[in-house]
Amino acid sequence: MTDGSSILLTGASGFIGSAVARLLVEEGFSVRALVRSQSRRDHLSALGIEIVEGSINAPAVVAAALARCRYLVHVAADYRLWAPDRSEIFATNVEGTRVVMEQARKAGVERVVYTSSVATVRPRPDGSPADEADFMSEGAASGAYQHSKIMAERLVRDMVEQGLPAVIVNPATVIGPNDARPTPTGRIIIAAATGRIPAFVDTGLNLVHVDDVARGHVAALRRGRIGERYILGGDNVRFARMLAAIAALAGRRPPRLRIPWYAGLPAALVAEAAARVTGREPLATLEGVRHARERMFFSTAKAEKELGIRARPYQAALADALDWFRGAGYLQ
What we know:
alpha/beta, 16% strand, single chain, 12 helices, seven-stranded parallel beta sheet
């Protein structure tokens, strides 16, 4: 698949999508990007890829964008753990995915890679790494983002049974350069590097470099099995270790005060109330605090075996993220 095959990529203006776009171009694919009218695209123009303007929720726009495309990589998503209007998250993550997948099936694309999330993988109560066989139910979802991704992934799996040639990838906690928005995790890194996290919860995350997630997408396109899902992750890291690593890179002392997860609920309530006034996404959210109840550790064995990928150490990913945030002026 390096013969100039044409790919439609959604979400190319975002954090993961832009990394996927860069790698696809490097690998010799002909890339067409479907981007919203308000999305930045300077970094895409520099790659020389074709830009199609429009929404993933518009069937006619998606159908036109898929014309003459052999493959589809659907990365576009609304990754917010809080929004003034929760319906916006469902509109993008569920209905947008429905439109894109239906049009891909009508267009007869040969292969689809759908970007889900480890939010659809249920962490194990004993803290051991969960794998692709551990499914999170809708009833156990902590908020709109997680609920929407569970619904969207189920939709894709159902369509696979109807003939859609889709492979599902589930990125873990993605960090690294070019997190321009920044993502909820990127905002935590910035806050930790600037000394604005005074206490922490004894939770855990699986940290993975955004460029390794991009490699996982391309590997899934080439070697993934239709109907299967693959966790694209890296190191399982206790949150205290993550904060200590960020502090060391930023030349600061890490926070020492450990609190139970539920102690973060009042702060999240206050932060969300303030966000309704300011319109700015809060650093602490109820969905994020609820996630901290469990260590979100995941196994990458399946992706390593079947896709032939292995992520770099999390310290390198944190260093790249901080270098980029520093250069972009986020740490001032």
